Amino acid sequence: MSAPLTFVAPRRAKPPRHLADLTSAERREVVAGLGEKPFRADQLSRHYFARLVDDPAEMTDLPAAVRDRLTAELLPRLLTSVRELTSDRGMTRKMLWKAFDGTLIESVLMRYPDRATMCVSSQAGCGMNCPFCATGQAGLTRNLSTAEIVEQVAAGARVLARGEVAGGPGRVSNIVFMGMGEPLANYRAVLGAVRRITDPSPDGLGISQRSVTVSTVGLVPAIEKLAAEGLSVRLAVSLHAPDDELRDELVPVNNRWKVREVLDAAWAYADRTGRRVSIEYALIRDINDQAWRADLLGRLLRGHLVHVNLIPLNPTPGSKWTASRPQDEQEFVARLEAQGVPVTVRDTRGREIDGACGQLAATEK
Questions:
Q1: Active site includes 119?
Q2: What Cα–Cα distance (Å) separates residue 9 from each residue in 1, 127, 144, 182?
Q3: Binding-site residues
């Protein structure tokens, strides 16, 4: 096993404690410590996770004095909406949030005919420094708390439930940790968020673990740790290059863990969980989209429980990096398929609303 490498966010004031930071038992302990009956914690949980209530005045089964005290202690406002932009005929909604300390974070709700997916951020900014990524170029501001991550999902669930998204009332069915930040560099909070998101209602949002995807640029010790958690979430590896020479440039953490090490950890995760690994590959014109790189990628992946998700790059303003030509994209797909590797090209959403992670926050700043 590789030695662990710690990524330390700058020291900042902590977000206020929130119901979603705590397990069901911990919530009851806190409520009892405030001199109230422990079952009040269950009532709060039901309002927040099951009924998706965000206005204390609607919690009418709680006496007013009790309600005010408990919501102040356990349901503080964590995120305030700064901007919301929609595209794709109202089926995609990008949300920019301001946290208690002014930190800006983003999340995206994408509605499809058969599902509704929330893409959430796990950090404000990112410390991985990938040069083609808007978030990576912004640097790391801080880690998000478990509750700040969960609240992004809850906010998306509310607007869907209220019918505020095109297509009428609905529910969030899928979660992808592919927003701002490197999820496995904020391991404890992300794991807590996964458990709150997937805990049965009313202890959590009741979304299936199999509908949750956690992405990483390849923090090998954290992948190994996640494999031992007994979860059934999907692992997505942001590979972006099959050769170390190029990946050292595109994904600087590759200087610590090389392509083979990352893929070995991914295969071990697949063996342990029985879940197919997703390989994320942003196609960048004349950088990583050559036919020979498709062939090399195919040789590395064939025979494994894997699926390749090709991502037409959503370029950031002023960047030299841009999306591949259509013919090069098609050739890349054909080369992978020829080696029996399952591959799809991601349905790009939100290009006209600064859809790539970090773009909207950068514009606001």
A1: no
A2: 24, 8, 10, 12
A3: 126, 130, 133, 181-182, 215, 238-240, 314
As given in the structure block, the two tokens for residue 69 are: 């005290």
pLDDT level of residue 11 (50, 70, 90 thresholds):
low
Task: From 146, 90, 156, 94, select the one nearest 123 (Cα to Cα).
Answer: 146
Contact 228, 269 (CB under 8 A): no
In this structure, the strands spanning 140-143 and 79-87 are unpaired
For the chain, domain boundaries: 19-74, 79-364
Nearest in space to 218 (alpha carbons), one of 198, 245, 236: 236
Q: What is the CATH class of 19-74?
A: mainly alpha
Q: Domain 79-364, what fold? A: TIM Barrel (3.20.20)
pTM: 0.93
Cis upstream peptide for 202 (omega within 30°): yes
Q: Pick out the residues of the known binding site for S-adenosyl-L-methionine.
A: 181-182, 215, 238-240, 314
**Interval 136-177: pLDDT, tens:** 888 999 999 999 999 999 999 999 999 999 999 999 999 999
CA gap 90, 79 in Å, rounded: 22
- 73, 106, 148, 280: which is the annotated catalytic residue? 106
- Which residue type is seen at 118? M
Q: Mean pLDDT across the stretch 75-87?
A: 96
DSSP 284: B
* pLDDT at residue 297, as a whole number: 98
DSSP 302: T
Kindly name the residue from 73, 119, 151, 357 that is annotated as catalytic: 357
Q: Are 235 and 214 in contact (CB under 8 A)?
A: yes
> Any catalytic annotation for residue 106?
yes
